[in-house]
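Here is the promised in-class demo. Please do not try to memorize the tokens; focus on the logic of going from shape to residues.
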């Protein structure tokens, strides 16, 4: 499937990369799902697309900025530290601006997208918690699609495995000790497809949340579905980091596990607090 990582050249100049196409598709499908949920909740679905226009650029900037600030071990080993990225900001191959070459942090995307969408919701005097619920169901759908971009770029894979669904990673995209073709031969070494694990978990999360939305919407408070999403994603991401081949660390601490741990605890605390307030 190596051809998927190549790009098409139109008119000899404009390059359309599969990575970017998949990410855009993920955003559009996620927004469509959110718009359908908004209509079902008797809200104007046009506000979903309006919020998306405000969220998309901050989300992309946030996603890339997170990667630049917390580069994975493979990038650091290649000399692409945070300082290097800023020094080579306009390098169209690997610099900070080269989002088409891969390297987007989901945490930065969620934070950036939230800020952009929040500004739109406040400007239009909409219920933030209610619209966050729509996002809580749409985000897993978008993430499930977006993770295939990682497959295209041969990234987000785990440690070697003997499980039948393990995938082969070419030498150019291996990291750390797995670059050794003597210790890890190309023809016999397979790796955990973390992007597939996360995609399947995201699909499962969407199915469960949609079931709850259809049957328990009136019994739950606005914002609960978004909190459920945070709890679900934080849990699976924290666990998958244990078998990830290329991790980002700060002071020896896995930055992804640190942030997902905080998100998980924070979401649970907020959910329980809001439930206790509702009971009084």
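The designed amino acids, position by position:
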């Amino acid at each position: 499937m190596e051809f998927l990582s190549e790009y098409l050249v139109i008119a000899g100049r404009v390059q359309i990369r599969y990575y970017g196409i998949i990410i855009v598709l993920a955003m559009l499908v996620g927004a469509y799902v959110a718009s359908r949920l908004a209509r079902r909740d008797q809200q104007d679905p046009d506000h979903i697309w309006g919020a998306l226009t405000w969220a998309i650029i901050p989300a992309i900037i946030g996603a890339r900025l997170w990667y630049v600030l917390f580069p994975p071990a493979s990038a650091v080993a290649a000399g692409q530290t945070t300082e290097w990225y800023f020094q080579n900001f306009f390098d169209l191959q690997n610099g900070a601006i080269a989002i088409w070459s891969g390297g987007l942090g989901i945490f930065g995307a969620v934070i950036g997208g939230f800020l952009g969408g929040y500004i739109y919701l406040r400007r239009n005097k909409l219920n933030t918690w209610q619209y966050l619920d729509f996002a809580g169901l749409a985000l897993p759908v978008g993430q499930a699609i977006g993770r295939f971009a990682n497959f295209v770029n041969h990234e987000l894979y785990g440690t070697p495995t003997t499980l039948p669904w393990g995938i082969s990673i070419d030498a150019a995209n291996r990291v750390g000790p797995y670059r050794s073709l003597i210790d890890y031969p190309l023809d016999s070494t397979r790796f955990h497809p973390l992007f597939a694990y996360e995609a399947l978990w995201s699909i499962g999360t969407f199915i469960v949340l949609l079931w709850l939305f259809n049957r328990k919407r009136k019994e739950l408070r606005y914002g609960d579905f978004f909190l459920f999403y945070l709890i679900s994603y934080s849990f699976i991401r924290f666990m998958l980091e244990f078998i990830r081949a290329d991790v980002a660390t700060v002071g020896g601490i896995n930055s992804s596990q640190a942030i997902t741990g905080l998100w998980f605890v924070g979401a649970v605390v907020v959910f329980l607090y809001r439930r206790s307030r509702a009971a009084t």
